[in-house]
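Render this sequence as a predicted structure.
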Amino acid sequence: MSNFSKSNVMKNQVDVKVILVTRRTRLEELVAQYNTEAQAKFVIESRGGDFEDYRIEYQNYVEAVRQVEETLKSAARVQRMDRQFLPNFIFGPQDIVVVVGQDGLVANTLKYLNGQPVIGINPDPSRFDGVLLPFQVKDVSLIFNDVVGNKYKHKQISMAKAVLNDGQVLLAVNDLFIGPRYQTSARYEIEIDGKKEVQSSSGIIISTGLGSTGWLKSIVAGAMGVSGKNEQVDASFSWGASQLKFAVREPFPSQNTGTDLVYGKISGQEEMTVSSLMPSNGVIFSDGMVDDYLEFNSGVCAKLNLAKEVGVIVV
């Protein structure tokens, strides 16, 4: 039986539509790869892994999703959506989005929205930190009531946008990566604030406030370590800030390439332009989704700036 008290759930809210976003667990990914659970178990244990941990994670997640879905269905129309279908799904402006999963699933969902409130549910607090998952399964009834009644608190999440000269657009909640698909050097021309420079590097990161404590932070920390400086440089900034920050990874100085424009801000209406000088294997992807990329080869020009779209996290 569900652990929820349904007495607190609003009834007859048939006009309310909830999109319940889920994702496959590690166990389900393994079974998809190795065809059966028995074969997946053999592979993991033959490598010294603990397959039981995969089972426990799966069971906890499935039960959490079941309970959340059961409660929501008593109050609204619920459509369950696996992460893989997000890019092709059209969200309605009045939809309420409930995400059960890890932080990455919340971030990945946000970039397909434009202001719809997102309720992040941590299905397993002992396993996941949940920076973007402020609620547990037991909280669903109360927080859903607050959202339906428009009595909820929220944080705005600024997003980054890449617009190519062929019209393609890519949004990012954490960060955009521009560079080589494989472990090679990228060649491009970067332009910002009236300054231009041809560069050779392992890529550029354009980070939002939400992503500034992740990949961007590691790049800055690495640069400080290489330079031998002991001071800590705080590259982080607020989730809803009207700015982005960019950092160039491993810039290489030569007769034809420079290293002056390797770190900075993209503020407000400002934009940064990056033009590809790579005949092949150039890519742009967002939020670590390497397989969901735009080609960035010779002749392609990308304009990077703050997106008009914003994410809304219920807190």
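Summary. Residues 159-307 form a domain with the Tumour Suppressor Smad4 fold (CATH 2.60.200.30). Helices lie at 26-34, 37-46, 51-73, 103-110, 140-148, 215-227.
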